[in-house]
Every structure is written in structure tokens, then in C-alpha cells.
Amino acid sequence: MKKLILFIIVLFGFFSFATAQTKELEKLLLQLPDIRFTKIENLTHFEASYEIKIKQLLNHNDSLAGYFYQKVFLNHKGFERPTIMVTEGYNISQNTISELAELLNANQITIEHRYFGESLPDSLNYNYLNLDQSTADLHYINQLFHQIYSKKWISTGISKGGATTIFYRYFYPNDVDLSVPYVAPINNAYEDQRIYTFLDTMGSDECRKNQKALQVRLLENREEILRLLELNNKESDVSYTYLTINQAFEYAVLEYPFSFWQYGHSCNDIPNSKDSLEVLAKYLEQVSSITFFSDEIIELYGPHYYQSATEMGYYGYQTKGFEKLLTTLPVTSNPHATFLPNKMTPPFNGKLLKNVNSWLLKEDNTFIYIYGSLDTWSATAVPPQKKDHSIWFFMDGKHHGNARIMQMTAVQKIKLITTMEQWLSLKIKNHSSFNK
User: pTM of the entire structure?
Assistant: First the structure.
């Protein structure tokens, strides 16, 4: 009975403390300029969660250019806890807890990228969709919430969000104490040749030979494969006007090796010459779906393609060996893998990439890089170097979707945790679940 009473007293005290923290947090949020916030059902890990719209300048160098509201999720753990900035490269689909927020028992601020999702200006002037402006968005949010959270700050992101973490640190090196980009490509050109080297050498000779044979058979039987794909997708509501259905098909076939390694597919699962065309069509949809080149997906990723084609760089598709089988795509040069809004053709400026790649080689600014050895994007990873305040993890057998702390070996986890403890001057107590 005494234990039950004690438990009730402790539980009541906990809820009283949490309620007081929430009231104090909302009071502080109300003092921040030009924000709107709505309390939402918080994740179980946090004390309170909010969806916030932050007024941002379209052009941080000219207030007359207009503004937009940027979508942010704030998940509050405690005023004395570290704060994680999740730098999304796209839209925010849902409010989720990051590995680092769980590991560090930290607050989390998840930031939708400008021109994605709900973070849209009234007029999509793409002149303002660049890394100078998008990292200024992050800097403004960082400075706003430093008024509430004064302890250690860490930025992190996955894929394009991870690249955004790196660019953010380049523009604002003092905003955070640590940056942890996951599977983050930093290209060096409009068409990064390292991708081709990766695809020409990854895996065994037999695996690459089987990949090529599959692509050839798909192209040789395009009419029947397209018919089967149409049957497989009869329930989906997709259209092909930006690209014709034949162009989309050829892109999907050329994309196949990139997607194969990006998400760690098995060489043993590649269909062979004895398998039916039905098996080939189903397999292509699983690994390199033609719907990725539909109007709906191209529109969704339009801002991403714009950024890639103007300053972030990207990749193209090798056509060697397919010259006689491609009927809609050019074979004299590699088709680029970007599909810009309204089929615009802005010039590429490689100055920022050159500066950032040079900076990454020279500076030592507390980075923890996490990559998967199978991932195609590891071809354009930040190259590992011997530094005192940056470490690299190239996780053996992992890919774009599972190169994460939870999937690390015990030795890797210990190295990561002890490094963060040293660099952040704190003790990480909440790592038992990461040691499984």
C-alpha cells in the first residue's frame, strides 16, 4: 500500500512538472516574433510537441522580396537538454523521432525545406531556391530557438537532408556544436563521374553482367513489358506527359543499377534468361519503378531537381551498350537524371560545390559522417581523412535506407558514443537500446 501511495505521489509530481514545463514553453513561444504554433499529440519520448509555422524572408538579403511560412515540428524534452536540428531536404511527411534525439535524450526541431510541402511562397520564384537562402532559413530558426534552448546543439539529416546539414555548417559554422549527416552526397560537378566508376566496379563481374543482361532483355521486349507494367499499375492514378511512357520506361531501365545498389538489392535475385517477362516486369517495378518518372513524382521532386541542376550537382545515365535499343533518349551523351519544373533550363554554377569540397578538405569542424558501403551515393561521399574532430563510418553491407546508428556494430556504436560524449562534454546515459 505504501509503495502504491509513493508511486502515485511520484507520478503526480512528474505530471505537475511536465505541465509546468509545457506552460513555460508556450509562454516562451508566444514571445518569438512572427510564428504560429499548434500543440499536437506528442511523441511518447517527449514532454510536448508542436507544429510551428515560421515567417521567413524569401530573400534574406532583401526584405522587400516577400516572405513565406516554413513548417517546423518542435518536440520538447527539457530546457536543460541538448537540441537536435533535423535539416530535411524535402517535405516533412510526419513528426518522427530521430536516432540522435532518442540517444541524447534531446529536444528535436524538424525543419521542412523551403519550396517543399507546405513551406511554399505564393509565387514560386526559383531564383530564391538556393543553398544560400535555404541555409539562411536554418540559421534564422537556430537563432530563434537559441532563446529557449541554450545547451548543446546538433544538426543532422538524411540523404539530401544530410547534404543540407553539411552546406548549413559551411555557411554557418558556429550555429551548432556537432553535425551528423547520414548517407549525404556532396557532388563535385553537374554530372558527377564518380557515380559511373562506382557502378562499373561495385559487386562481382557476374553480378554486373547479369544486371546488363536484364536491362538488354527489358529493352528488347519493351512492348510486352510496358503492357505488363500497365496491368500491374492499373489501379494507380499516374500520368505521363512530362515524359512519354517510352521515355519513362527507358529512364527506369537505365536507372536500374543505381537503384539496385542504393537500396542494397541482392545479386542472387536478378532474374535470368529462363524467367518469364512477367517476372522481369514485376522485378523492375520493385527495384526501379517506372512510376518514379511519372508526372506526379516529377512534380513532387521538381524543387530537388532544380537545386541539383543549378548548384548541387547530380548524375546521369550511361548509354554505352544500349545505343541500338534506346529509341527515345539521346545516345551521344549521357541523359541527365534531373527533370526541372516547366522544363526550364537554368545554367549550372559549380562555384559553391568547388568551395564546399575545398572547405571540407581543409576544415575540421566536428562532423560524424555515416555512410553505407553498398549505397550508390557513397560514391560521392565526403572523402575520409585523418582529423581530430571528424570521423567517418562506412557501414559494411548497409545501404541508403539502413546505414543508421541502430545498425552499427558494437564497436562502431562505442566509438560513436564516446566521440559524442567527448566533443559535446556530456554523458550519454540513454544508449542501452542502441546496444542490442
Answer: 0.94
